[in-house]
Amino acid sequence: MSNDKDNFSMADLSSALNEENRADLVNALKNKIQSLAGQHSDILESLSPDVRKRVDVLREIQGQHDELEARFFEERAALEAKYQKLYQPLYTKRYEIVNGVVEVEGANETTADTEEDKEKGVPAFWLNAMKNNEVLAEEISERDEGALKFLKDIKWSRIENPKGFKLEFFFDTNPYFKNSVLTKTYHMIDEDEPILEKAIGTEIEWHPGKCLTQKLLKKKPKKGSKNAKPITKTENCESFFNFFNPPQVPEDDEDIDEDTAEELQNQMEQDYDIGSTIRDKIIPHAVSWFTGEAIQGEEFGDLEDDDDDDEDIEEDEDEEEEDEDEEDDDDEDEDEEETKTKKKSSSRKKGGRAQIGDGQQGERPPECKQQ
Q: Poorest-confidence range of 58-67, 213-222, 328-337?
């Protein structure tokens, strides 16, 4: 079935990005090529004239490829923007059903509860969807669940200046914090190869005594202390809501040592992993995560990896059997040689031992399969 709204041409895709964005994209690619050329000019100078001419032609081919790649990124962004608009009506319907704004046909016919007792929508929809994802489940503590039950919707949008994306978490009025929306913004150095520059969160306005990212510790005063009151202090604790207070990169890199820099990088990678999981998995497939169907899909993927591992193990076992057979053949040959003559030089005997040693080295552990 054709529809004028759904039909699009290359011109439509190109017009979805303005001239400034296209120019920025092409210039970025040119700058990257020029910087690489500058770094490797010494290699080019070391080549013979004939090889240099061939490499120059190859570089022209590479330039043509990069121009096509720039068009690909341009059209992909426009295509993604087109489908994001097509998804929105579906996300709106999902929001209305989850939060009880609209009722589906036949839902009220099966219960005889009073109007006050009827459950509206799908309680704890987003909480359970996230808990069924392995990455997010590790971030959600039991203390967080009460607050996350008030989560009504999650949205994401692309940002252009600087490049990156923004997550928005919409909450119903709740006893934990005053914010109705919590945001998390990721600024990317390179959008196509996800290199994170920094992440910006929301300062949560906690109600008194309801902060989930800190816990209150009470210590009894020491014996003989004049102050008989218990000593109280706050301590940071694990919580999903730490997501909105991301690790920050110091303005001066010289202020941190190598170990601190490595730890910071790991924290930023983990933070981006959480954000991209919410953007790429939870938001578009929230219903499947809520029902658990998405978990089965992930498990099937793991099974395929396991099959590959099994094949690798079988291959390694075959190699070990072959090595053992070679060892047996070597032993038989050595016995025959000893039977034929007992007069062998010491160097020849050493050579025989080395041969056996080589066969034993064949019994190596299976190679680790890179995931």
A: 328-337
